[in-house]
Amino acid sequence: MDLTSLYTDIVFEHDKRPLHAGLREPFTAEVHHVNPTCGDEITLRLHLDTAGTQPRVEDISYDAAGCAMSRASASIMADLLIGRSVEEAAATAAHMEQVMHARGREAGDEDVIGDGVALVGAAKFPNRVKCVLMSWKAYQAALLEARTLGLAGGAA
Known about the structure:
This protein is of the alpha+beta class.
């Protein structure tokens, strides 16, 4: 598989059969992001489990419209982060952002970002980086909103 190309089979698969798509309840926070450059949009709901010692990502649901790259990224992100602690999710999101801002010089660790490695080809195209990272930024904004409401702790 050529992970340096823009559209891979994994991207097409997540675009055609998105995981965790459709807005669900209950949710802790909801955000709406738009990429004004290309018109991609996402409404993302985050549901946290705060019963334990560390908050966990109980669910991420979303409604995404836009290019295949942005919709696939939302699917991949939700699948990666659901079930993880907020701290683990922060490390995954940080690695994804680092790889996407490396302009194609960094392959990404598949053990950390899973199918997200299929999005790395977009790192060579600055406008496409925004498409890929929009859902990740929406997750971080939802987490911040949950914190503002006092419903989450830990790292961003």
